[in-house]
Amino acid sequence: xxxxxxxxxxxxxxxxxxxxxxxxxxxxxxxxxxxxxxxxxxxxxxxxxxxxxxxxxxxxxxxxxxxxxxxxxxxxxxxxxxxxxxxxxxxxxxxxxxxxxxxxxxxxxxxxxxxxxxxxxxxxxxxxxxxxxxxxxxxxxxxxx
Length: 145
Prior knowledge:
The chain has four helices and six strands, in the order αβαααβββββ. Helix 1 (6-16) packs parallel to helix 4 (72-81) and helix 2 packs across helix 3. The strands form two sheets. It has a four-stranded antiparallel beta sheet, with no helix packed on it. Strands 1-2 form a two-stranded parallel ribbon. Strand 3 (88-94) and strand 4 (100-105) form a beta hairpin. It is an alpha+beta fold and 145 residues long. The protein has helices spanning 6-16, 28-37, 42-58, 72-81, and strands at 21-22, 82-83, 88-94, 100-105, 117-125, 128-133.
């Protein structure tokens, strides 16, 4: 192992919680807090959070293995306890006018057996496009398509 304090926490996490901690959608401060809670040294949490943030949101990376400015052993440690998965597209519908509707499944969290579902609709217009993103799972607006 890498010698970082996170090593011992990884072993505990594997036994106590079989699910990884999702990092996608966290603010920078929340990301740093989660890193600290998982044993990253206090003097490194800001730097490591910034590295992960830049790779995920600046470069679109969804795999720790691609984060070349983080040591291989630490990338492996992070991969063992953290998840970078994005929502999965379950279905897509495209209407004659070009409007698109996607049903997304979010990663499993907590005691769920499968991830929550939410819909997103893109409505193209001559000089712009409108994207309707449900702010809650189970949106009750019942938009027609």
